[in-house]
Amino acid sequence: LPTAMHYRALLIGLLASLTLTSIAASQEIMSIDAGRVYWLDPHDGSVVRTGQAVGNQGTWSGMAKDSQGRVLGSSGYTWLPFAIYEIDPLTGQTQFVCQTSLLGLTAISFGPGDGLYGLNNPNAGQAGGGKYDLVTIDLITGSTSVVGSTGFNTFGTLAYSQGSFWAYEGGYDGVGLVRIDSITGAGVDVNPAVRGPNDLVDSLCFSDDGVLYLLDYGLWIMDTETGVPAFINFIPGAPLIVCAEFVPFLPAPFSLGTRGA
Questions:
Q1: 3-state DSSP assignment of residue 215
Q2: Which of 83, 117, 163, 173 is most buried (CB neighbours < 10 A)?
Q3: How many other CB atoms are there within 10 angstroms of residue 86's CB atom?
Q4: Is 149 exposed, middle or buried (CB count within 10 Å of its CB: 0-12, 13-18, 19+)?
């Protein structure tokens, strides 16, 4: 017959399950596709709600969230330097923060000390491209400094966790997941045996519990140890997600736009 200890174990298991469910439901992924905002369910990639276009700032290249929950995005026009904007995680509306001089800023992420970092192609606009640099961005002045060369081409993603930056090279070289040293900027292929299919990933973001998600037309979870992505689902309506970040979940009664659209 069940004893008090059995019932206690069952109760602890139930409470743990409820806690995990609560944590998983406490976040959603805010993402941008050509200016329209999508909030996605990380469990299945479904669209929780949509928002209005986020202004007329050109092409979005990256999104980053600091330790206080502030969300920034990088955007610019062809052959013109990229600017940094603050993005409201509830509405998707934007406010100008600073102007950089970077022409090849393809991704941003907050890193050590809540500093803003980015990946920049120093040869943007020139034939042949070039190896991407890890750079820092001053949010007051817009000035930038090169940390170092990653040694890799065609990055469009950047995320920070576990003391390192993470990027995905799925184009020119098809390297796959790359870990980038935050001090030197040098990149290392996580698993040379796992290649990155062309245009597989346009966005990377970590959940608060340290799980790395990959997005473009679909949603994946990435194993940072092996570099192997696990497919979750295609995103309904097939928007091409160009940047994304986890934000606090907004309960259905307070959602903006059309839920489930």
A1: strand
A2: 117
A3: 15
A4: middle
C-alpha–C-alpha distance, residues 205 and 218, integer Å = 14
**Structure tokens that stand for 238 in this block:** 């097939």
> How many C-beta atoms surround the C-beta of residue 73 within 10 A?
26
pLDDT by residue (tens digit) across 161-204? 989 999 998 766 778 999 999 999 999 999 999 887 655 578 99
Q: CA Rg, the chain, in Å?
A: 19
CB 101 within 8 A of CB 142: yes
How long a stretch of residues is the chain? 261
Pairing of strands 59-65, 71-76: antiparallel
For the stretch 101-120, pLDDT in tens is: 999 999 999 999 999 999 99
- Tell me if 76 sits within 8 A of 89, measured CB to CB: no
DSSP 8-state assignment for residue 155 = B
Residue 249 CB partners (closer than 8 Å, separation 6+): 25, 26, 27, 28
